Amino acid sequence: MAEIFNILHKNKNSKARTGVLSLPHGTVQTPVFMPVGTNATVKAITKDDLEEIGFEIILANTYHLYLRPGPDLIKEAGGLHGFSKWNRNFLTDSGGFQVFSLSKLRKISDQGARFQSNIDGSYHMFTPENVVETQAKFNSDIQMQLDVCSGWGVDRKEAVEALRITSDWLLRAKKAWEEEQGKGYKGILFPIVQGNFFEDLRKQSAEFVASLDFPGIAIGGLSVGEPKEEYSKFLSYTVSCLPEDKPKYVMGIGTPDYILDAIANGIDMFDCVLPTRNARNGSYFTHDGMLSIKQERFIHDFGPIDKECNCKVCKNYSRSYLRHIFKSQEILSSMLASYHNLYFLHNLVKEAREAINNDRFEEYRKVFLKRFKAGEIK
User: Fold this and answer.
1) How many domains does the chain divide into?
2) How many CB atoms sit inside 10 A of residue 5's CB?
3) Cβ(194)–Cβ(148) under 8 Å?
4) Which residues constitute the domain of residue 286?
5) Residues with Cβ within 8 Å of residue 351, at least 6 apart in sequence
6) Strand 106-108 to strand 113-116: parallel, antiparallel, or no bridges (unpaired)?
7) Total H helices, total E strands in the chain
8) What φ, ψ does residue 36 adopt, rounded to 5°?
9) Are 60 and 74 in contact (CB under 8 A)?
10) Is the domain of 151 the same as that of 220?
11) pLDDT by residue (tens digit) across 290-336?
12) Count of alpha carbons within 13 angstroms of residue 123, beta-carbon side
């Protein structure tokens, strides 16, 4: 299969590396944090704001867009790019995680996943084939296979069965993806490594996925409620079982400690809803930890959220004002907080790339996290 990833520099003291992804809607510098735009929109953020910050790829969610407005309408509009007017890259997930987490009634079989809509209670069936077809209608630049994600604490029998189904579904997804390519679809498919928290199953899954030689690989089943040390252990182990030259994507991580841990392990891509979700709850990222704007101590504080941040929110708005609009439940509060949090993480990853290129990533990581974890701004 065609190679889409070029490694630019490997850090001398860790697995961290910088690279470039070549995708249908432009190149992407890695490591990269990808904002989550569930319904083809990142909540409280315009596409122009995303471009202004510098994002080159965002996510959209297959489950939600399949249910509303539907893949046929999106295809009619010119795919996700024509529909949303975001003309850079889209990565779409398979919808599998939402089937398992949102649906009140679901049944997993060899055929696929039958589920009940969280919108109107109607029944639907996701198969490896129709999930690929749906994402092709979206014109996704990167699409994910349908998989079975088993949570922290399940027994080995359940993990084995989930992996068996995921592996079978991957072969079917691969065939469907190749058929879509024959029709002119240019997006790529990422397989997903599963295996829960059993090393032999992780290795089995990683080796199976690697043998199929996809352009990139996703690592699933992490950050699902396990302790931080288990996450780190199984992330590192899974990476060690995968080919070095492929871009690697870990789903669902969005705090500085998890992001920098992933980068140190050679992960190139990651995403999370946390930055914008926190923002809507009045929680801001700063170099000195998380800041809750709702606190009374900010009533007379006319300084910026973070003196070292160069985003337009920190340049133009005070903590006092941001507290006021949050307490008043103004829509602008979510917009400004979301912009700042996404800018902050984008800048964090940009600085990490610079540190990798200068062979000082571990020093950067240590200094950043020591200060960030020290607590709230005094």
Assistant:
1) 2
2) 18
3) yes
4) 279-372
5) 364, 368
6) antiparallel
7) 15, 17
8) -95, 120
9) no
10) yes
11) 999 999 999 999 999 999 999 999 999 999 999 999 999 999 999 99
12) 5
142 & 234 share domain:
yes
pLDDT at 21 over 80: yes
**Rounded to the nearest 10 degrees, what angle do helices 361-372 and 256-264 cross at?**
160
Mark whether 213 is an active-site residue: no
378 falls within a domain = no
Q: Identify whether 93 is a catalytic site residue.
A: yes
pTM of the model: 0.96
Catalytic residue among 147, 261, 268, 271: 271
Out of 93, 147, 261, 268, the active site residue is: 93
Residue 377 lies inside a defined structural domain of this protein: no
pLDDT at 376: 53
Q: Which parts of the chain fold into alpha helices (H)?
A: 47-53, 62-67, 71-76, 79-84, 96-102, 128-138, 156-182, 199-211, 228-240, 256-264, 274-280, 312-316, 319-327, 331-357, 361-372
Largest CA distance in the chain: 62
- Whether residue 1 is predicted with pLDDT greater than 70 in this model: the reply is no
Query: Across residues 87-93, what is the average pLDDT?
Result: 98
Backbone angles phi, psi at 72, to 5 degrees: -65, -40
Q: What is the CATH number of the domain that holds 107?
A: 3.20.20.105
273, 305, 328 - which closes a domain:
273
Say if 164 falls within a structural domain: yes
235-to-222, 267, 349 alpha-carbon distances in Å: 8, 9, 19
For 169-187, write each residue's pLDDT tens digit.
999 999 999 999 999 999 9
pLDDT of the residue at 103: 63
User: Residue 350: is it exposed, middle or buried by C-beta count within 10 angstroms (0-12/13-18/19+)?
Assistant: middle
* End residue of a domain, out of 218, 252, 273: 273
* 294 and 257 fall within a common domain: no
pLDDT tens-digit readout, 231-282 = 999 999 999 999 999 999 999 999 999 999 999 999 999 999 999 999 999 9
